[in-house]
Amino acid sequence: QNDPDLFGRFISPGVFCASDRNGTSVCRGDSGGGMYILAGDRWELRGITSFAGLSETGSCDTKKYVVFTNVAHFYGWIKRLTMGGGEQDVDVPKRISEMKCQEYAKLAEKQPNGV
């Protein structure tokens, strides 16, 4: 309802929208951060920040909802990976930063002066 053109394309059992709409929200650089809820006497990870809508000027819009990855939906998969035995079945590509870091390290090895 907040922005059906944006959010409607992404809503599935694997994600959910949330917001306090009180002027606080996520912004650039917050992706991957956790959304925690208080469950009894402990905090539980409920979602992982995915993305949010932008204002008309292209800045973060604190009045729009945020899309989070639904951790509960992926709990079984997470448990299999973290409890062992499943990691070899998952093909996780390297991040660009990892690839560039390796590339730059090789360049430094080829030229002893580092130039």
TrEMBL record:
Pfam families: Trypsin (PF00089). One of its GO terms (biological process) is proteolysis. GO terms for molecular function: serine-type endopeptidase activity. It comes from the Eukaryota. Residues 11-78 form the Peptidase S1 domain. Belongs to the peptidase S1 family. CLIP subfamily. This is Polyserase-2. It comes from Culex pipiens.
